[in-house]
Design goal:
Length: 759
């Protein structure tokens, strides 16, 4: 359990990361609501009705739905649309990835769910047909999150800068507002590669200062202009509002819903904080501050009907004139902090999509060695910046931006509501009636807002739909092409009988070194290997089929990283190594991976001669291959260590002193490699000979064979299939990144081979 000090510290930090977007919504909610659909009359029925809607919207959606219900549906501490999707697929036994294995279900994070296997089987068999629908729903939510990453920075910064209008002439303001907004946005995106940890320590104070500022102004306005404004929280005022305004009032809901923009961040950023810290920060700090801010604005507007600027400016007119300039500065800083959180969230969800095979491989830069999950994706960053600038310059007013942002926000919330209703039944094993009540209560409330946003299609709401369709097409084409490619690899793989018929030499000359063959297959022999053996006269003495795969859990512990096994008899010296990563795990591009790989094979050789496995190892039977679960060298303290004198001579000598058994390679070699074996281990001569051969191969060097399987549509395929496979997927494949671990290996040691499959 976390101590209260730790929880409160996390709650403080969450204010800067999670709530920046939500806390800046008072800048534009009233302004967007009164843009054109309704007018502010002397009776105040409109302003009080809007306040009542804002109060109950903030209470029902962020407070009740997210804080008290949705936050509990975490995937081993992680939140967000894809976390819900992954959680559902595991419980329903629906395969999210083509190369899933039974061994993956033995992962500790997989078992944490505590769901009964028979229940999952019963549910899974009846819901297999729903996998595509579930994936489609998750991808729609994801696309809208990306759309939010474009629209939120635009509307937040533009609304904050709009306060400059009060201190200059209207003619001047037109020429200043847009350039200043664009300059701030360009700076915001240009600084992304430094990472939030560089300036993260000032995020929370900025948001706290902003919340203190708007709540204080709210309290001042309530007591100064209308102390009875609190009566407007009665739901009766919502009824009076809709009765008077009718269609206009319904259409204005598209502006009101912006009061909850950023609520999804509470769930999406759950992995960086704790459930309790987010609940405390929202319930006791953010929620009361926002309610006071909206009440204060309503109190001011209820006594000011004549000034036209009230409806153009909204927030800033209710700020006392003496403090407008410092409030403007704090607002711009708060808008930047809120935008930063949304952009970072966009990077995170695209990385998750890529890990689960739904988005092309992109370059992921880890901006902090200490804080997990802080990443930067250059291609996505500049794409978001260009789209953000296009939206800002194209619309030039908060009305259209608000319509666009509103639709993106409410769509993500509807997707979360749908997925949550399934979680209640499949994961929490509650009555289906409870799930129906959940989707009916929250879904009907959100559907009302969704319809009001959708009706503004021509007035800006088309933007998130257009962006979503583009990203959805990219995701679908990539997912479909990847699936077809994997199925082709499986269909064309070579049987073990073919390998056995060649004998230990494989019918060719075995030269010194390690041949590392990258493949997506988790079993069988890839066709690319048979292609080599039939076309080349020689191959390496040690062959490793390497598969780097993602599993549908957030994290895989270092102690469970590798699945290692033999392919064929011992004399063949052919191994399979499967490195497993969660969808939120970091793939580091360093030499440690190469070392861990060699040590995992050495550990396999050692384990075969022992009567019992140690704690960090577990045998798994998979597709007639005996696979052993082995951790990385840093996590397996009792395991074999690899020493290379040229690179780490000092560290090596320390390790040798703590061990009795040292297997040495011949002195004549220029690059000396040694395995440090724990004192407690007894290794027989056969295993020592095999370890010696592995060392010699390591000293000779490692060659990386990267197989490219190209897919083409079969002759006679439909027009759409031809377009998707031959043009869409081919374009994305050529412009996506290769495996990250390949970047560490010298180009001189890399060999790329292509094979064409017709699907």
């Amino acid at each position: 359990r976390n101590s209260w000090k730790a929880v409160l510290t996390l709650a403080y930090q969450s204010l800067g990361v999670v709530y920046g977007d939500l806390s800046t919504s008072p800048l534009y909610v009233y302004k967007s609501t009164f843009a054109e659909d309704i007018e502010h009359s002397d009776t105040n029925e409109e302003i009080f009705g809007v306040l009542s809607f804002v109060f109950w919207t903030l209470t029902i959606i962020p407070l009740l739905k997210y804080v008290f219900i949705v936050l509990r549906a975490d995937d081993n501490g992680e939140g967000g649309t894809f976390a819900l999707y992954s959680l559902l697929c595991r419980h329903a036994r629906l395969g999210t990835l083509p190369n899933c294995q039974l061994a993956d279900e033995e992962l500790s994070e997989y078992k944490k769910d505590g769901s009964a296997a028979n229940h999952r089987n019963r549910i899974g068999s009846s819901l297999k047909f729903a996998l595509k629908a579930l994936l489609g729903l998750a991808l729609i939510g994801t696309c809208m999150v990306i759309g939010d990453g474009v629209l939120t920075p635009a509307i937040s910064v533009y609304s904050a800068v709009s306060g400059m209008e009060l201190s200059m002439e209207k003619e001047q303001h037109q020429y200043v507002e847009l350039p200043v907004t664009c300059a701030i946005l360009v700076s915001l995106f240009a600084l992304q590669h430094f990472g939030t940890h560089k300036v993260g320590f000032i995020f929370a104070p900025i948001v706290i200062t902003w919340l203190l500022c708007i709540s204080s102004i709210g309290v001042y306005n309530i007591f100064r202009w209308n102390p009875h404004v609190y009566q407007a929280i009665s739901p009766y005022y919502m009824y009076k509002f809709l009765k008077k305004t009718r269609r206009g009032g319904w259409m204005s809901l598209g502006g009101i819903l912006l009061c909850m923009t950023g609520s999804e961040a509470m769930f999406a950023d759950l992995g960086h904080f704790s459930q309790l810290s987010i609940q405390i920060a929202f319930t006791f700090v953010v929620y009361p501050s926002l309610i006071l801010a909206y009440m204060g604005q309503a109190a001011y507007l209820s006594k000011h009907h004549s000034l036209e600027t009230d409806y153009r400016i909204g927030f800033y007119v209710s700020v006392p004139e003496q403090i407008r300039v410092p409030v403007l500065a704090i607002a711009i800083l708060a808008a930047v902090v809120g935008s930063q959180a949304v952009i970072t969230g966009t990077f995170s969800i695209i990385k998750q999509c890529s890990a689960l095979g739904c988005f092309p491989k992109v370059k992921v830069v880890h901006t902090s060695s200490r804080v997990h999950g802080q990443i930067y994706i250059p291609e996505i960053n500049w794409t978001l910046m260009l789209l953000c600038l296009a939206v800002t310059i194209g619309f030039r007013n908060t009305k259209h931006m608000a319509n666009a942002a509103g639709l993106a926000v409410i769509t993500v919330m509807l997707v979360t509501t749908c997925l949550m209703s399934l979680v209640i039944v499949l994961c929490w094993h509650k009555n289906a009636l409870l799930a129906l009540c959940f989707i009916f209560f929250f879904g009907s409330f959100e559907a009302l807002y969704f319809s009001a946003s959708l009706i503004k299609f021509l007035e800006g709401a088309w933007v998130p739909i257009a962006l979503s369709l583009i990203f959805l097409a990219i995701m679908y084409v990539w997912h479909y092409g990847t699936l077809m490619k994997y199925q082709s690899d499986v269909q064309n793989k070579v049987s073990i009988d073919w390998l056995l018929s060649l004998g230990p030499t494989l019918g060719i000359v075995r030269v010194r070194g390690i041949g590392l063959i990258h493949t997506e297959l988790v079993s069988g022999i890839p066709a690319i290997f048979s292609h080599f053996l039939t076309n080349l006269p020689a191959f390496h003495q040690v062959v490793v089929f390497l598969c780097i795969k993602s599993v549908p859990v957030p994290h895989v512990g270092p102690e469970e990283r590798f699945l290692v096994g033999r392919v064929g008899p011992k004399g063949y010296h052919i191994y399979r190594c499967i490195a497993r990563y969660g969808y939120r795990d970091i793939h580091k591009d360093d030499v440690e991976f190469e070392r861990d790989l060699v040590c995992s094979i050495a550990e396999l050789i050692r384990s075969e001669k022992r009567g019992s496995s140690v704690d960090v190892m577990e045998e798994v039977e998979d597709d007639d291959e005996r696979m052993v679960v082995i951790g990385t060298t840093s996590s397996n303290l009792e395991g074999i260590k690899l020493c290379e004198e040229e690179e780490e001579e000092a560290r090596c000598s320390d390790e040798v002193r703590t061990s009795e058994t040292v297997v040495k390679s011949p002195e004549r070699l220029r690059r000396r490699v040694r395995f440090i074996v724990p004192e407690s281990s007894h290794i027989d001569e056969e295993a020592q000979a095999e370890l010696m051969e592995l060392m010699e191969a390591r000293e000779a060097g490692m060659a990386f064979i990267l197989g490219h399987s190209y897919v083409r549509a079969k002759r006679g395929s439909s027009f759409i299939r031809n377009i998707v496979i031959n043009y869409g997927y081919d374009f994305l494949r050529r412009n996506s990144r290769g495996p990250s671990y390949a970047l560490c290996i010298p180009h001189a040691s890399t060999l790329e081979v292509g094979m064409v499959y017709h699907v």
